[in-house]
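Form 7-S
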Amino acid sequence: MSIDVIDEGKIIMIYKSNTVSVNYIKEGIVELKFDAKEGSVNKFDQQTLQSFQDAIETLQGLADLKGVVMTSGKSAFIVGADITEFITHFDAPAEQLSDWLKSVNNTFNCFEDLNCPTIAAVNGFALGGGFEATLLADYRIADTTAVIGFPETKLGIMPGWGGTVRLPRLIGCDNALIWITSATNNKADEALKVGAIDAVVAPEKLRESAIEILEDAIAGKLDWQAHRAKKQAPIGVSQIESMMSFSSAKDMVAAKAGKHYPAPMTALTCIEESVTLTRDKALAIETKGFVKLAKTDVARALVGIFLNYQKIKGNAKVAAKKASNIDQAAVLGAGIMGGGIAYQSASKDTPIVMKDINQAALDLGLNEASAILFKQLKRKRIDGIKMAKVLNNITTTLTYESVNNVDIVIEAVVENPKVKSTVLAEVESHVREDAIITSNTSTISINELAKSLKRPEKFCGMHFFNPVHQMPLVEIIRGEKTSEETIATVVAYGAKMGKSPIVVNDCPGFFINRVLFPYLGGFAKLISDGADFVKVDMVMEKEFGWPMGPAYLLDVIGMDTAHHAQAVLAKGFPDRMAKVQKDSIDAMFEVGRYGQKNDKGFYNYSVDKHGRAKKGAAPEAYELLKTVSAESQDFSHDEMIARTMIPMVIETVRCLEENIIATPEEADMGLVFGLGFPRFRGGVFQYIDTMGVAAFVKLADSFTHLGEMYKVTDGMRQKATAGTTYYNM
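Output:
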């Protein structure tokens, strides 16, 4: 709605809604401010877009308008489009989506075409549609907190409100291609260097400086018309320059993005096709490219991951409201894992005590934390002060004295139930009664471990993944007697550590390992039937999209660890996971081919002249596998994928049906963040929905002769008959 406020005969405020306001700040100079009344950030939802359009129409009607400064009333300028709202546009028919994009672009063009100079004063994050809004202005000034960029290709789409049109004309094709295809966030000084913004000032001087630049433009000291014309004209490069630039760019984008992620290449192609076009014709090319991407399964999967991640963060925020404070932590058991946990807690400002029974282990743990920090220091991600602060947050000890007053303990000793039970009972006698105790176990039952404790309600699992500082997931395992306050506190602590926590109920293997080992079991059966492990790895990496194939993954996990976990799951689910014969994992384990930990497994490992690890298929492994495998034979790529993936998919569905995992969203995030499930596939449930439940059931039925792991649940079969999906159930 519009509001007229009179002050000594002069209109001060001329438009105001719940998200946008327009005010006179000087004679003829107007401030258009984004300041959403609901929520902590500005974002382009449908309400804000409508308000922006209304505000522009108000500006167009001002006879005395001399200049406009675009500002934000929040600590971030505009964080982007509201993807939760706009996903409905992606689901609409292509023509309808195209019309919507044209409508938004018409609104944006109207601001850019105002008959006066304009400037955007950028603070904090201006991403996606927020950055595109700043590109409408003739000038951009940012404060030192500003971060700008286009993250769209991470969502499987591309800028759709003029980003691929205006940015190349502003900073050149080469720079724009890097920004758009790599989805980088760029700080103010970096943006200034390439010309994406025109000046950088301290936060307290931002508005004042923006007005000064605007006044210079109004006075004719700055050629604002030329600035604007540059964004609307064809890009001034020769045909030869264009061919050379885009040819090399295509090679780099193809190598980095790969065939499974079409958005970066589509954005590049749109820019290439529009270099000789004016703004409006170039926008039509962009709209066509955006619509094409929005209709892909990849975009649906990547947007799904984004939304699922928001749900995980939301769960953590809810948990934080019910949680007890964690001001001091402890980890029992040092070494690589303990050191990684200690680093993670300390780096996020929660001091932690690292306790072990021998000094060598403590030294190893501290060295692990130091090594992580040194790498960050070398890459200039931290400075010496930050490094010292993190290390000062880690205390090492051989006794329990320093653990007496901690709020939470993470037990991370050897994966042996008797050892863990003994250590847990021991530490319980040394900590406060209200302290929470957790176990970083990957396979051992939380309910069984809880029997060694007097206060099982203060106990749960907290399963980290190695390397701790790189893997975003932490699996919180609820025992039968674990209290809700304990779960809430551990979830909140996990989030504070910078992790994405998912809560699962106790069962053999919990969630992640329970669904991983049927996949590895499918692989082991393939090898038993004569498949070549190198070919299987290649297909699962290049075709399906895993970061590493199953043989390579087993080498990374460690054959001893895998052999142990396999036995736990076989005991827990004998009908489908018990072995009927010796397999490749058994064969490797029995002769001590443990994988990367001793440089020999399916592959042999060495170091190249640059000090980097390298692997090669081991001839010894091929000879060994002959003892547990049928004669060598070829399998189609589709069959390799089906035989490994079907057991994982079915087991994931079982976990949902048995309430081990609460929702498809949390299951998919666990798989993506914990196992590296291909992001462009979105997770198991997104994968099933994309294929179609009925199609998956039909595929699985064709492999039931391989055993119980390939038999779908009754619930899946009912869904197939009903034609329903796991998302939007």
